[in-house]
Amino acid sequence: MYIDETLYRGRPEGERIPKETRCYDFLDSLGIEYFRMDHEHADTISDCELVEGMLGCKICKNLFLTNRQQTDFYLLIMPGEKPFKTKLLSKQIGSARLSFAGPEHMERLLDITPGSVSVLGLMNDKEKQVRLLVDRDLLQEENFGCHPCINSSSLRFATRDLFEKILPALEHEPSFVELPWVVEE
To answer: Given this model, what pLDDT does residue 1 score?
Structure first.
């Protein structure tokens, strides 16, 4: 995987796709200090492991979920190395039969494609149809890593800024969940 080993402060120079540019505009409008690096497409947590070393923080796992009827949608952010079982989450949020939402729902609600899901996509959820779920273990991290709605760049900013500035500006109140590090089969 190609990685530009330079860690940049702030937005990139030059032309970027509109949804990525909106992320930088949004972060800049809030006065958020962030660092960025560019790389080949990193679609999975294992792809992100190389990026994490250069970025200096973990990139969280972002799962876009829905109920069986596809009427309720959830964005779960959690530590990347933590296992995930839908039944453990379903019980905590009172929703039966969660599954992964399809790409058409990602595009429509978050303007994101598979592999690029990010908490920053909530800026595109103008009608507040997506409920944000946050694993409490993320609160222990000093920094937060995510994609700027495209998986060929990654960002690092203070976790404190995520909860004190970014989420309030997005008007998405997080619901905290506690998922186990060890999942019995």
So the answer is: 61
